[in-house]
Amino acid sequence: MAQQTTTPTIQLKGVSKFFGNIIALKDVSFKAHKGQVTALLGDNGAGKSTLIKVLSGVHIPDEGDILIDGIPTTFKTPRDAAVLGIGTVYQDLALQPLMSVTRNFFLGREISKGVFLDMNRMNEITRTEMAKLGIDVADPTQPIGTMSGGQRQTLAIARAIYFGAKVLILDEPTSALGQKQQLEVLRTVNQVREMNEIAIIFITHNDMHARLIGDRYTFLNRGRVLADGDRDEIDMDNLRALMAGGAELAELESEFQNTST
Ligand SMILES: Nc1ncnc2c1ncn2[C@@H]1O[C@H](COP(=O)(O)OP(=O)(O)OP(=O)(O)O)[C@@H](O)[C@H]1O
Ligand SMILES: [Mg+2]
After folding, report:
1. Ligand 1 near 47 CB (within 6 A)
2. Ligand 1 pocket check: which of 12, 19, 88 to mutate, most ligand atoms within 8 Å of Cβ?
3. Mean pLDDT throughout 81-102?
4. CA–CA dist 134, 228 (Å, integer)
5. Which CATH superfamily, name and number, covers 10-260?
6. How far is 243 from 251, CA to CA, in rounded Å?
């Protein structure tokens, strides 16, 4: 596991993002190290997606800084972020179900040989890269639709890594899957961690998955960081209680405001 004293691969300092008068993120600091899984947790509307959109150049923060390997950076577009090694796997995986495994792996970044696509080479790379993550693809010319949900998730991950991701952002990778497939994805994520080169940000609602796979946790609540720390520093049950308490308090506050006007 990477030492905490090393410079984070990616870091946010004091980031805020507003949508009109909605505070999606307020003064958020966040970091992820290579060779580690940072689990990003929080209830609906906590700001998780907004945070990863800031990290991947979709949203430009209203306040605060983004640092890559300790160097302040600005992303104007998702392309800027991708060039700097931010690979984001969104929930829909951006796959074409009718196209082959290989064509999906290389979607938009095909290898040519003269005027033709170099299918042999692309098939070979697809097989090799999937094997690195423990998936044996017997026939990469088959439609991607023949693969299981877990395998498709692995393909999206393998693709991001092959095309240079050093920060791998996974947006709820287990939420749409059955239990067996979920474990398959967790196994894949573990394999990426063991490469020791990539900082993984794992967004989840599932505390158990966070416990299983997370080296560090960042808990968001109403756009703010409620807690941030190593696996053994964080008491998940306590946090849940805190969050529930926070919600009740806010409810009471608005009730009192309503009665006092
Ligand atoms: N493009 C947008 N325009 C306006 N408000 C937005 C926009 N994106 C997010 N928000 C608001 O910002 C807040 C944080 O939303 P966000 O999607 O980041 O939460 P989340 O933690 O990803 O939630 P979920 O678990 O439901 O995916 C919410 O109040 C949401 O309604
Ligand atoms: Mg979200």
Report:
1. yes
2. 19
3. 89
4. 31
5. P-loop containing nucleotide triphosphate hydrolases (3.40.50.300)
6. 12
Q: Which of 26, 34, 71, 76 is nearest to 201 (CA)?
A: 34
pLDDT at 212: 86
67: number of Cβ within 10 Å: 16
- What is the per-residue pLDDT for 215? 95
pLDDT at residue 243 is higher than 90:
no
**pLDDT exceeds cutoff 80 at 117:** yes
204 CB within 6 A, ligand 1: no
Residue 27 Cα to ligand 2 midpoint, Å, equals: 19
pLDDT in tens, 148-185: 888 999 999 999 999 999 999 999 888 878 888 888 88
Report the predicted TM-score, pTM, of the whole model to 2 decimal places.
Answer: 0.88
Residue with the nearest Cα to atom 27 of ligand 1?
44
42 within ligand 1 shell (Cβ under 6 A): yes
E runs forming strands in 136-207: 167-171, 199-203
Tell me if 45 CB under 6 Å of ligand 1. yes
User: Which residue in 183, 153, 180 sits closest to 168, CA to CA?
Assistant: 153
Express each pLDDT in 124-138 by its tens digit.
999 999 999 999 999
Q: Which atom of ligand 1 is nearest to the CA of 25?
A: 14
Indicate which atom in ligand 1 lies nearest the CA of residue 43. Answer: 25
